[in-house]
Amino acid sequence: MDRNARNIPAALAELKALFGDRLSTSLAVREQHGVGFSYHKARPADAVLFALSTEDVQQAVRICAQYRTPIIPYGTGTSMEGHLAALKGGVCIDVSRMNKILAVHADDMDAVVEPGVTREALNSFIRDTGLFFSIDPGADASIGGMASTRASGTNAVRYGTMREVVMALKVVTANGELMSVGNRARKSSTGYDLTRLFVGSEGTLGMLTEITVKLYPQPQCTASAVCAFATLEGAVNTVIQTIQTGIPAARLELLDEFSIRATNQHSRMSLKVAPTLFIEFHGSDAGVKEQAASVQVIAEENGGSHFEWSLLQEERTRLWKARHESGWAAREMRPGAMNWSTDACVPISRLTENILAARVDLDTASIPGRIVGHVGDGNFHVTYLILPDSEVELAEAERLAARVVERAIESGGTASGEHGIGYGKIKHMRREHGASVELMRAIKQALDPDDIMNPGKILPP
Q1: Residue 1: predicted pLDDT
Q2: Per-residue model confidence as pLDDT tens digits over 64-80
Q3: pTM to 2 decimal places
Q4: Which residues lie closer than 8 Å to 436 by C-beta, 6 or more apart?
Q5: Which pLDDT value is given to residue 41?
Q6: Which residues of the chain register pLDDT less than 50?
Q7: What is the pLDDT of residue 441?
Q8: Pairing of strands 369-374, 251-255
Q9: Torsion sign (Cα): 114, 120, 425, 167
Q10: pLDDT of residue 157
Q11: By the 8 A CB rule, do 282 and 221 touch?
Q12: Residues contacting residue 69 through CB under 8 Å, at least 6 positions apart
C-alpha cells in the first residue's frame, strides 16, 4: 500500500480535535522525534502526539487504523538503528509522559510500570526496598523502549536481557484493542509465549502501555576492577576463560586503546592507555574477594597488569559513569564528527577472532574508530567517527559495519545483540534468519494487516 492510499490529513484532523495542543505539527518537535542516537538522518512524522494514558494510546490507534495512518512509538529517543524514522509519514506517539510506577511487589521481586518510566527512575524509586532493576544499556532509556528493542547492556552477562526480565505486558494492537499477555508467575506452560513475541518487536506489532519486570536483590557486596592488557587478544581471552570457568562476574566490559585514550581525556582519568577490562563482582564479601582473585590470576596469564579493584561506591560510580560516557568521549577525539555505531553478538568461543578482525579493519581504514563491548555475553560494538557531510566516509563506515555483521553471522551469531534492526540492519535479516523471515511476515500481516505499526522496520521488503 503506498502513502496515497492512506488518509493522514483526515487522521490528523480527528486527533487534533480530540487531543488539542498535545498533538504537535511543529517541525522542530517532529524532527526531534524522528531520529535517535545514531547516524540515521531525521525522518520526521507528520505530527507528534503526547499520550498520557493507555486510553489515549487506544483512541489514537483507532483513529490511525481507520485512516491507515502509520504509528511510530517514541520513548526517550535513544534507539540506534532508525527505529524512530517515519518512513511512510504518520503519527509519532510519544509515551514519555506515561511515566508512572504502578506497583512494586517487593515480596515477589517485580514491578509494574508505564512505558515512559526510565531505568534510573525505577531504580531510584525502589532503592529502599533492597531491590534493583538490572538492565543497564548505558543511556537512561525508557523501559517501554528497552522492551521494544530487547535491550541488554552491562549487567546482561549475569542477569540476562529484557527477554528474561519482562514478565507481562499490556499492548495496544493495530486495531486499538488492549491485550494483556504474560503474568507475574515466574514460569508458565500455557499457550504461546506472546510476551516474548512482543519483546523485541520494535513497535511493529503493537504499542506497549504497561510492562511488568523482574527485580533482583541488591548484592550484599559490590566490587569493581580495572585491568589493562598488553594485547586486545589477551583482554578478550580473559573474558572467555572467566565465563568458561564459571566465575559469576556481573559485568565484563571491554574498551580498546582508542576508547581508553578518549575516556582519560573526557572523564579526567589516568588509566593506562591499553586494551582494558572494566569488571564488576556481586555477592557476599568473601565471594566478591574470591571472584576478584580468580579473575586476576586469569588476567595475569593473558598479559594483564595494573589489576586494581575497589569496594568504594564513589570509585565504582566514577568508573561506570566513564564507561557509559565513552561514546561521547570518542566523539570528542574528532571534532565535528558523529558516531556511526554497529553491534554484533557471537558465541564466546568466536569472540576473539571477530573482535580482532574488526580491529584490523579499523587499523587499515581511513576513518578512526573504537571497539567496546559487553563481552561477557559475546556482544561487542564498533563505532566509526565520520564527518556527517562526507558521503565517502559514510560509505566506508557502512562497508566496515557490514563486514562486522557478516562475520558474526558466519560465526553462528547475530546481526545485533541489543541495538535491534530498525531499518538500518534490514539487509542482514534474510542472511541470518532465512525462510523464517516469511513466518515473521505472516505474524506481522495477521496482527497488522494494513501495516500501520512502525512500517518499514525489521522485515525486508
Answers
A1: 41
A2: 999 999 999 999 999 99
A3: 0.94
A4: none
A5: 84
A6: 1-4
A7: 97
A8: antiparallel
A9: negative
A10: 92
A11: yes
A12: 6, 7, 8, 11, 12, 63, 89, 90, 91, 452
- CA-to-CA distance for 115 and 222, rounded, in angstroms? 29
Specify the pLDDT at position 6. Answer: 86
Distance CA 459, CA 425 (A): 10
SS3 string of the chain? CCHHHCCHHHHHHHHHHHHHHHEECCHHHHHHCCCCCCCCCCCCCCEEEECCCHHHHHHHHHHHHHCCCCEEEECCCCCCCCCCCCECECEEEECCCCCCEEEEECCCCEEEECCCCEHHHHHHHHHHHCEECCCECCCCCEHHHHHHHCCCECCHHHHCCHHHHEEEEEEECCCCCEEEEECCCCCCCCCCCHHHHHCCCCCCCCEEEEEEEECEECCCEEEEEEEEECCHHHHHHHHHHHHHHCCCCCEEEEECHHHHHHHHHHHCCCCCCCCEEEEEEEECHHHHHHHHHHHHHHHHHCCEEEEEEECCHHHHHHHHHHHHCHHHHHHHCCCCCEEEEEEEECCHHHHHHHHHHHHHHHHCCCCCEEEEEEHHHCEEEEEEEECCCCHHHHHHHHHHHHHHHHHHHHCCCECCCCCCCCCCCHHHHHHHHCCHHHHHHHHHHHHCCCCCECCCCCCCC
Candidates 437, 429, 358, 434; CA nearest to 399 is: 358
Domains of the chain, each with CATH number or no CATH: 3-96 (3.30.43.10), 101-217 (3.30.465.10), 221-327 (3.30.70.2190), 334-429 (3.30.70.2740)
Q: What is the dihedral of CA 143, 149, 150, 152, to 10 degrees?
A: -70
Residue 146, CB half-sphere, CA atoms under 13 Å: how many?
32
Question: Given CA atoms 401, 407, 410, 412 in this order, what sign does their dihedral have?
Answer: negative
Contact predicate 256/231, CB 8 Å? no
Please calculate the CA angle 142-146-150 and round it to the nearest 5 degrees. 175
Q: How far is CA 97 from CA 18, 22, 348, in A?
A: 18, 11, 40
Q: What is the largest distance, in Å, between two alpha-carbon atoms of the chain?
A: 68
d(CA 334, CA 258): 12
CA-to-CA distance for 389 and 386, rounded, in angstroms?
9
**Per residue in 221-248, pLDDT tens?**
999 999 999 999 999 999 999 999 999 9
C-alpha cell at 172: 495496544
Tally Cβ neighbours within 10 Å of residue 22.
17
pLDDT of residue 203: 97
